[in-house]
Every structure is written in C-alpha cells, then in structure tokens.
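Extended Data, panel c. Modelled sequence:
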Amino acid sequence: MTTEGWLPHVGDVHLRIWLADAVFNYVATVAAARNMINDWMQNCWCTIELINDTSEDRRSLPRLPCERLFLGP
C-alpha cells in the first residue's frame, strides 16, 4: 500500500492521530504527512486518520509538532 492514491499532490492535510484514548488534530504539508505515514507503516505505533475538510476548517488547527523532521527522506 502507498500513500500516492489518497493524498493530494500539494498543500496541507488534516491529520488525526490517536494515541491510546487521546486524539490530536494537526495540519501538515502533504510531504510531511506522506513521510510520517510511510514511517508509521513500518511500525504502527498509533492510529492515523486523514480528514477530508476545507482549508477554513484547518485554519484553527496547530501544525504537526516537529513537522520539518518529516520533510526529509
């Protein structure tokens, strides 16, 4: 499975990350989200959802912590 089919090519996406019973909503670039999901597929340490919403809905969400770490290979 790859992220190519269900992630847009550019822009930001809304990620929902579940750690046990806690839920965290973040905005991240497509590149960071793709790399994070590819890393997650190696070792599923949480649950990740991609939420389909408008850019207005994403404005109030915080950026993914340490997002720039997921921008590299």
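Strands lie at 12-19, 22-29, 47-51. This feature is highlighted in the accompanying rendering.
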